[in-house]
Specification:
two-stranded antiparallel sheet; alpha+beta; 230 residues; 10 strands; 7 helices
Length: 230
């Protein structure tokens, strides 16, 4: 269904290029995951249907899509084969009953399989091995969901460099663009003002924000640029 501007409030809006810069995944890979692709004559269906449809045949992501891409990429980086990630999504949809299950707070991976977190006795995690469909008890790697705040098990906002960096991505604010947390001003705007005005202090006066807010934005945008260049 084609989205209107009002319907995007609380959803977020990102192009593959914007998403790629934030989650450090090549835009082309994101497009393949969300549009489907063919390899050696075999067609692979999209991993899931994006939240956003602007009606122009382009690929756009919402905040939940952004989180799903981040987790899928992290699972692959931990050693899980992309085919296993695809299988995990399909199995988890049946169990969790959600279109984007990997971005919930219930998943773990040890690089070989994917586990669905369930409540267990004491402090020991009770997990379901999605591929064996049995309960298991074992130590597993952190779920690669660091910096995400959850509400009712659903990602609500993301601190891409940790809370201490002061930059947050919240679909309820500025359409999910990275903002300086204390002032809600887009990080790109503050960083651009620092360049245009010649200093963080001058940019802070233009925007009527603390100098610290500008410095946070400059640091964040600079890190994103460095990673893109690398």
């Amino acid at each position: 269904m084609r989205e209107s501007a009002d319907s995007l409030i609380g959803v977020g809006l990102y192009t593959p290029a914007e998403a790629g810069r934030l989650v450090h995944v090549p835009p082309g890979k994101i497009v393949r995951w969300l549009r489907g692709h063919t390899v050696k004559g075999k067609y692979y269906e999209p991993l899931w249907r994006p939240e956003i449809d602007l009606g122009d045949e382009g690929v756009y992501l919402g905040f939940r899509d952004l989180m799903e891409v981040r987790v899928a990429a992290a699972f692959i980086a931990r050693g899980l084969h992309p085919i296993r990630v695809r299988q995990a999504i399909e199995l988890a949809k049946d169990i969790v009953g959600a279109e984007r299950p990997l971005s919930t707070s219930r998943f773990r991976t040890d690089g070989r399989t994917v586990f669905l977190h369930m409540e267990g006795p004491g402090d020991e995690a009770r997990l379901i091995d999605l591929f064996r469909r049995q309960h298991v008890f074992r130590e597993v790697v952190e779920p690669s969901l660091e910096g995400i705040e959850f509400e009712d098990g659903i990602p609500a906002r993301w601190w891409p460099q940790g809370r201490q960096a002061g930059i947050v991505i919240d679909p309820e604010r500025s359409f999910g663009k990275p903002i300086e947390a204390d002032t809600s001003v887009p990080a790109d705007a503050l960083a651009a003002a620092a360049v245009a005005e010649g200093s963080a202090e001058a940019a802070a006066r233009v925007w009527s924000v603390p100098v610290r807010a500008v410095k946070r934005a400059v640091a964040f945008v600079g890190t994103q640029a460095d990673r893109k260049a690398a």
